[in-house]
Amino acid sequence: MGSQSCSSNINAAVTTQLLLTLFRIGGVVHFGVAGNANPGLNLGDVTIPFQWSHSALWSWQRYGKGPKDELPLESSGDFTRAIGYLKFSDYTVSHLRPTFDNLLNNVWYQPEEIFPVDGTPEVRQHAFWLNVDPHYFEVSKKLVNFKLQRCINSTACLPTTPKVAIVERGTSGSIYLDNEAYRNFLAHKFRVSPVDMESASVALVCFQQMAPFIAVRALSDLAGGDSKVPAEVETFASKLSAYNAAKVVVELVREI
Ligand SMILES: *[C@@H]1O[C@H](CO)[C@@H](O)[C@H](O)[C@H]1NC(C)=O
């Protein structure tokens, strides 16, 4: 199964759940385009991550509190300080940084509450990083030399020949990321390559329904800009990336 949803974690999750409920589905191969957070990859590369997380479920900490202070509802197991946080004042544009404080304080990343079908009813579990199906992932490694298209016509070509990249992690959020500082934060904190708006939702639903899952995401933009990428390339990168992602998916499904 491939699924294309309209830029939202909720739509992607609902669609996945509906398809898994209504049809007998052996596995889910999700695909699309994504922003790139990994400086080691190039525009147009098609990534296949081993793990996905939803990184937009936050506990936003009250001003004046810090890493040593318990979060609201932490003692009842709702929230945790285990995954880490973003401190807004680290991003103040000033030579006086870090003596400047910021009223937005900190946001702490939270795992999802999940209820897998093989769990105890009404007893929640938590998940942040979800592995893709290990068999699908092994099969995807056969595609590292798969030939991808570099040009969309006789004149419009990517600066480098795109490749299939087997990567450690990707992350999703209901956030269209066009901000270099946050992109770099995500890359350093979570070692992610693709950043998108759906894959983790599909992963979370599949995990709870015990359906094998993998996602293929082509890097169609740099999630916050890069002066090295000519503006005219950005105009066709998305279309070419989507085409290459689909080609990889067809090959991956054939191999599976
Ligand atoms: C090639 O594609 C680019 C980007 O979509 C477009 O601007 C250009 O006109 C196309 N050139 C030809 C020869 O079709």
UniProtKB/TrEMBL annotation:
Pfam families: PNP_UDP_1. GO terms for molecular function: catalytic activity. Residues 1-30 form the signal peptide. One of its GO terms (biological process) is nucleoside metabolic process. InterPro entries: Nucleoside_phosphorylase_d, Nucleoside_phosphorylase_sf. Gene3D superfamilies: Nucleoside phosphorylase domain. Residues 11-253 form the Nucleoside phosphorylase domain. The keyword Signal applies. Keywords: Signal. This is Bark storage protein A. It comes from Morella rubra (Chinese bayberry).
